[in-house]
Design goal:
It comes from Borreliella burgdorferi. The chain has helices at 17-21, 30-36, 55-62, 75-90, 108-117, 131-138, 148-165; strands at 2-4, 7-8, 67-72, 97-104, 123-128. By secondary structure, it is α/β, with parallel strands linked by helices. It has 2 domains: 1-64, no CATH class; 65-167, P-loop containing nucleotide triphosphate hydrolases (Rossmann fold, 3-Layer(aba) Sandwich), CATH 3.40.50.
Length: 167
């Protein structure tokens, strides 16, 4: 779907869950083969996956140069990050993982996670929890590009681009 002259989106489909169950040869590299046909048309290809360790994630990982993981400041999210790192090492690929803390609150638990990540060279920043943002998402409403939460995302994106351009 062409959104604008510099942005195309390919939506996911609910039927994609069948992909994990089907017996397909070289299932792990299906996406990589398809993206080879597209990569000359784009500066960036961003793949948003569901948070599960299945073949859709494996496909995204094997064709990625970078991974950005949004995590909440909760114990299970940090544990999931370790599972992701294990899966990546299982695939024998070397991909830098960048982290964003989302839905950040100013409580002690969240501050402790932030403190443990803030000096990591691949930590991109945090997005504060905001009720107005939650309401916009719930209503599928348009986002105000000048709101503070959008500026947080823009700053994170700028930091990421600066890092990858310097490599």
């Amino acid at each position: 779907i062409n959104i604008s002259n510099n942005l195309d989106l390919i939506p996911s489909y609910i039927s994609l869950h069948k992909f994990n169950k089907e017996a397909i040869t070289f299932k792990e590299i299906k996406l990589q083969k398809q993206l080879l046909n597209l990569q000359s048309n784009y500066d960036y290809i961003i793949i948003d996956t569901n948070p599960s360790l299945d073949y859709t994630l494996t496909n995204a990982l094997v064709c990625s140069d970078y991974i950005i993981v949004p995590i909440t400041a909760e114990k299970w999210a940090v544990e999931s990050l370790e599972l992701l790192k294990f899966s990546i090492s299982d695939l024998a690929i070397d991909i830098p993982i960048f982290l964003i803390i989302t839905r950040f609150k100013k409580n002690n638990t969240h501050k402790a996670l932030f403190s443990s990540l803030k000096d990591n060279k691949n930590f991109l920043g945090l997005i504060y929890e905001r009720e107005d943002l939650n309401k916009k998402i719930a209503k599928n409403d348009l986002f105000n590009l000048n709101r503070d939460y959008m500026l947080e995302y823009k700053n994170i994106l700028s930091k990421f681009i600066t890092i990858i351009m310097s490599r």
